[in-house]
Structure formats: C-alpha cells, structure tokens
Input
Amino acid sequence: MVALATVGCGRGPFFDVPVLQVERCSAVDFLFVIDNSESMQRHQDNLRASFDPFIGGIYESLDDVDDYHVGVVTTDAYRDNEEGCRELGALVTSVDEGPGTDAVECGPFADGQRYMTEEDDLAQTFNCAAAVGTDGSRHEEPMKAMRRAIAGDSFEWHRKCNGDFIRDDALLVNVIITDEADGDEAPDANEEPAIEHWYRTVVDKKGQESNVVVVSLLNDVTPDCQTGDPAFDGKNIADFTERFTYGFVGGICEPDYGDIFARAVEEIDSACTTYTETIFDQ
Output
C-alpha cells in the first residue's frame, strides 16, 4: 500500500517534507567506515572473513531488493587512493599491500563506478577494498569520515570521488569498525554537541532516522571488549548508534563477527519493511 504523509525533519532542521510510504525498500546503500590505524589488522581480517556470509544473508532476506551500492572509507585521508581522492571520506578504490609495494587497484568497479554494486563480484571486490592496511593516522576520525562520505556534497572532490553513491531513495546502512574513541568534534561554528551533530547530519540526508541502519563494532561498550583505557572507549560512537531505531553495537574484539552480522541482517530486513521514501522539495 502507498500513502502520502509528512514528517518533521528533512534536509534542514525541523521542517515538514512530503514522504511516500512504501511497503519495502528497493535499494540499499552500504557504507563501511574502517579504522586503518596500526592496531586494526586482525579486526580488518575478521571483517573481510565475515562479509561473504553477511551479503549472502542480505540477498536471501531482501529478495525484493536488487539494487546495492557498497563503499568503503577509512578513518583518515587515505593516501593510497588516486590523486584527487586522497580526502577523508573519499571512497577507497585502491589499497596498499605493505611497505615497498605498489597500491593494488580494486576499482573502478562495474560501469566505471568508484563504489561497488550488485554487478560486481562483491565477495571479491569488497575483500580487496576493505584491505585498507594499518598505516593510517593514529588520530582516527571515523565519524567525520562518515559525515563527509554521506553528506559532503559541497566539496569539489566529493563529486569526483563519491558522486551518486548515497541515494535519496535507498535505505542507508552504516557499518563503523574502530577500536579507539572518535577524535571528531562538532565544528566551532556549530553549537550542537558532537553526537547530535553526527546524528543530525545523517538524518537530514535521509529524511528520517528509521531510513538508516547503524552497526558499530567498538571497544569498551560490551562486556567482553573492555580495555579500561579512555583512548579506546567507543562510548561516543555507541551513543550515536543507539539513537537510531535500527542501531546496535557489537564488540570489536569478538573472534567472529558472524553473530553480529546475522543480527545486522535482521535489522536491515526490519528497516526495509518500514522504509519511508522522502520526496525532498527541490
């Protein structure tokens, strides 16, 4: 059934925009924000090993969806991208396999895009793009990378490096994997606390919060992944994540992410059934 309604937030704070209610989503955009600092190798390996069954579960559960965008960004300005796309929040298309080696080209992907789609062999292309290495900055900024990847339209590089990746009519799935606290703060000119700023950026882009799924793998927010070191405490990212109806956190130290991603499939399926397409006033 299709119905017309209004909601109280859109691409600006607190104004009404028309929305079109649909029975299920028909497209999904996946953004993976991957910490590429020196302590992340085993977590990256775990993520890559878990992706194939995860995307297989998505295909099986979301049988009405046949349109996927999948992109990877790192927690710093990724130096192994091509010139012009070495920006925080730019999609990864090439990776560094280690000291003394040349960058490996993972993309362009199908149809010359800088993001992956269902036309790619996602198990293979994601395995390449997610191998971002561990030579990144120790000042990780996963939330700033997320914001710029999703809503950095005002940047000239964004049109070249991320153009058409995030769509108005697609469910957005953010997967954030970092073993340290986030170093991002709200801009000086913005009086909102950082968590509110992160949340507002995403919701303003997608029209309403239920059009977003957030899965965050963190330290110090689950019983099994406690470090006791404030530098590793992911509580600020957890607080952001849990503001979403379809948001939950898992422990980054888990030896296998299978259970976390199985739950993610369930959350994505639920979000897809309640998806509300926002028709933005042009």
Q: What stands out?
A: Helices lie at 41-61, 122-129, 142-151, 156-161, 194-206, 235-241, 258-273. The CA atoms of residues 46 and 255 lie 7 Å apart.
